[in-house]
Amino acid sequence: MTSSAPSSPLSSPPPPHPPVVRRLTLDDLPACLDLAADRGWAREEHKWRLLLTAGQGHGIDDPRGGLIGAFVLTTYGPLDGDPGGRPSACVSMVLVAARHARRGLGLGLMRHALEEAGDATVFLFATDLGRPLYERLGFTALAPADMFTGRFACSCAEDHTAAVPVRDATAADLPALRALDATVFGADRTHLLARLPSFADRIAVAATDTELTGFAAAWPTEGATVIGPVVAEDETTARALIAHLASRVEGPIRFDTYAHHRELATWLRAHGLDGRFLATLMVHGTPDVPCDTGRVFAPYSVALG
Questions:
Q1: Domain that residue 199 falls in
Q2: Tens of pLDDT along 108-121?
Q3: No. of H helices and E strands in the chain?
Q4: Which residues, at least 6 apart from 33, have a Cβ–Cβ distance to it below 8 Å?
């Protein structure tokens, strides 16, 4: 959550008590972008469009028009063949308009999110400003994540090795890609991965004739190209995938990764990227998330895990 500006009692009438939270649709996309801009966030239409179709947007209407609060809940089912498996859900884009800040709306939105999630394992990426609210609701911190940005300096002799064959993905790779993701993520993200070919500019796979050992994608956001997800069996494979995609980007890139990938962070800095703290992965309802963060080198997005 972002910082809150002081509110004026004359700036906007208070919302109804309790405020009505309704489901959002793509028709609400302009209002979501306006709400994000109100809090100083980028107007990421491409990402919001994905979130509102792959996930479930929820919002509170402003009597004057638009939204005064919103969040997105993206749910993932248990894996096939795991009858005792538990679904998981990612909460993201938790926003309250600045003029309605410090009135308990953020807390109310999060309680609504937890109710909507039911018995799912709920996780999110929290900034330092939002973390106290999530801790109040029972979330526990698991792992910090860093954001790297800049222009990738390619060293083809180092990054493209015969030991890790990387190529652009084809439609024939999708079943193996989904199978690897399920093993690593610990949940069924078929509905999200099915949208990856239309969402991403490019998808790469690390694959031999018999096995797919990693995949990655690059997609546009405001001012940069995001590389994510990056799922791989080891860091060498992850580096080859990143280099394959980043070397084809003309402008700056953004790469989010868990802080425990320290050697990867050193490699990214050596290739021209600067890193800084981004957020903390937090979970509610269980001690841990089903995802193997050792093999997730970049999330699809911090809004999706």
A1: 146-277+290-298
A2: 999 999 999 999 99
A3: 10, 13
A4: 43, 44, 45, 48
Task: For residue 107, give the DSSP letter.
Answer: H
In CATH, what number is assigned to the domain containing residue 266? 3.40.630.30
pLDDT of 171 higher than 50: yes
Q: Does residue 216 register a pLDDT over 90?
A: yes
**Torsions phi, psi of 17, nearest 5?**
-120, 120
The runs of H, that is alpha helices, within the chain are 29-38, 45-54, 105-117, 131-136, 156-159, 174-185, 190-193, 196-199, 235-246, 262-270
The verdict on 138 and 25 lying in the same domain is yes
Sign for the CA dihedral angle at 286, 189, 235, 212 comes to: positive
- Pairwise CA distance, residues 136 & 255, whole Å: 30
The mean of the pLDDT values for the chain is 91
Which pLDDT band holds residue 232 (cuts at 50, 70, 90)? Answer: very high
Locate 4 and state its tokens: 């809150």
Q: Two tokens at 190?
A: 């078929």
End-to-end CA distance of the chain: 17
pLDDT score recorded for residue 2: 40
Phi, psi of 44 (to 5 degrees): -90, 80
Q: Give the contacts of 266 (CB within 8 A, at least 6 positions apart).
A: none
Asked which of 119, 142, 165 is the last residue of a domain, the reply is 142
Q: Cα(282)–Cα(122) distance, rounded to whole angstroms? A: 8
The DSSP element (H or E) to which 42 belongs, if any, is none
What pTM, to 2 d.p., does this model score? 0.90
- Cβ(253)–Cβ(151) under 8 Å? yes
75 forms beta bridges with: 89
Dihedrals φ, ψ of 237, to 5°? -65, -40
- 205, 93 in Cβ contact below 8 A? no
Count: domains in the chain = 2
Residue 11 lies in a domain: no
